[in-house]
Amino acid sequence: MNAHTSGTRTRRPAHETRQHVLEVTDSLFHTQGIHATGVDQVARAAGVAPTALYRLFGSKDGLVAAYVDHADQRNRSWFEGAVASVDQGGPVAVRAVFDALAETTGADDFRGCACQLAFAEYPDPRSDAHRLSASAKRWVVNRFRELLADIDTPDTRKQQAAERLALLVEGALASAGTLGPDGPASQARALAELVLMDLT
Q1: What is the CATH number of domain 59-199?
Q2: What long-range pairs does 118-122 form, CB within 8 A, spacing at least 24?
Q3: Distance, CA of 20 to CA of 56 (rounded, Å)
Q4: Would you call 17 exposed, middle or buried from its count of C-beta atoms within 10 A (0-12, 13-18, 19+)?
Q5: Do 117 and 34 contact (CB within 8 A), yes or no?
Q6: pLDDT tens digits, residue range 136-175?
Q7: E strands, the chain, where?
Q8: Rounded to 10 degrees, what is the CA torsion of 12, 18, 23, 27?
């Protein structure tokens, strides 16, 4: 019998408890929505006291911000993992990123993009959730721009290509979450190839 069904709580170090709560939060926010999910429900599902949750995150807004940041770090990790797998930049690295994107969006547990969800529920640009989501999306553009830096073409064209590639990532994440990986998201890799051909 686990902690959730027995009514007992598992003792963990604070950093492990925080990680566990964020994993539970990720599932609940994606299936129910952020505003529709209360702090008490998160605490019950995670098997922690509400007071412990508030100690870790301060408030519901703090929990949401941590959820967005956690998702951003996870996305950056798979992106950088893809780049590292080919050990070079330029078009080869970009192709590796889109191959990794296809694997991510094709996973059985893929539920969409946390940052896109946060944008939809926190339209106020002054909110931490909105601000962190925007930062996550800008990072993708900037990272593509860095990967294309050594290509011999004007900077304006490299920036345009980076923005187009980021747009394809956004579209694939949104489409795979609603229409599945075999829908429009399956075209992202081929479209990225067209962007690279136009650039070089």
Answers
A1: 1.10.357.10
A2: 118/34, 118/64, 118/67, 118/68, 121/33, 121/34, 121/35, 122/34, 122/64
A3: 12
A4: buried
A5: yes
A6: 999 999 999 999 999 999 999 999 999 999 999 999 999 9
A7: none
A8: 110
To which residue do tokens 């930062």 refer? 135
Per domain, the residue ranges of the chain are: 1-58, 59-199
Backbone angles phi, psi at 143, to 5 degrees: -70, -40
14: which 2 tokens?
């604070």
List pLDDT tens digits, range 88-143: 889 999 999 999 999 999 988 888 899 999 999 999 999 999 999 999 999 999 99
Instruction: Name the CATH superfamily housing domain 1-58.
Output: Homeodomain-like (1.10.10.60)
